[in-house]
Amino acid sequence: MTAKNTICLWYDGDAEAAARFYAETFPDSRVGAVYRAPGDYPDGKQGNVLTVEFTVAGIPCIGLNGGPTFKHSEAFSFQIATDDQAETDRLWNAIVSHGGQESQCGWCKDRWGLSWQITPRALIDAISDPDRAAAKRAFDAMMKMQKIDIAAIEAARRG
């Protein structure tokens, strides 16, 4: 990878599967080099996949098969901006239906525990509306949602 800054994500032996799922699910994503361990290490054996280079929505990442010691948390998430309800639904459903889990306000987790914010651009526009009452109505509507419903956000914004 040529990027100066790369996000390193810790997995328990399935970094390659995660990278392949992300590459199949998100636009501008791909799997790059897969490196195998040259020797045994605390949570793996020589020849196991040690790291995987991949890109998620244009962001360079490395998946490290470091073992079960560390877990993902909501303290880190990918925020994916969507252009319409169809894209929002497709990405949300891909994550949740492949062993993931729904959360609130457009957040969900994939089966590896990594958090995602599937965020329609219409939501950002609505909650940043210069009409603060309209923004609050849209925000209050979002707070009751799991997957974001753009039509409901726009209706709340209009009042």
Structural summary, described in words:
- The chain has 159 residues and is an alpha/beta fold.
- The strands form two sheets. It has a four-stranded mixed sheet. A four-stranded mixed sheet has the order 5-8-7-6.
- The chain has two domains: 1-70, 2,3-Dihydroxybiphenyl 1,2-Dioxygenase, domain 1 (Roll); 72-159, 2,3-Dihydroxybiphenyl 1,2-Dioxygenase, domain 1 (Roll).
- Strand 7 (107-109) and strand 8 form a beta hairpin.
- It has helices at 15-25, 85-97, 121-127, 132-142, 150-158, and strands at 7-11, 30-36, 49-56, 59-65, 77-82, 101-102, 107-109, 115-120.
Q: Specify the number of helices.
A: 5
Going by CATH, the architecture of the largest domain would be: Roll
* Number of structural units classed as domains: 2
In helices, the fraction of residues equals 25-40%
| Rg, Cα atoms, Å | 18 Å
**N-to-C span:** 48 Å
Q: Please trace the helix and strand order, writing H or E for each element.
A: EHEEEEHEEEHHH
Low-confidence segments, ≥5 residues, pLDDT <50? none
Number of strands: 8
Largest sheet: 4 strands, mixed
User: Could you please say which CATH topology of the largest domain applies here?
Assistant: 2,3-Dihydroxybiphenyl 1,2-Dioxygenase, domain 1
Give the spatial strand order of the biggest sheet: 1-4-3-2
Arithmetic mean pLDDT: 97
At the fourth level of CATH, the homologous superfamily of the largest domain is 2,3-Dihydroxybiphenyl 1,2-Dioxygenase, domain 1
Dominant shape? elongated
| Helix vs. strand class | alpha/beta
The CATH class label of the largest domain is: Alpha Beta
> Hey, roughly how much beta strand do the residues contain?
25-35%
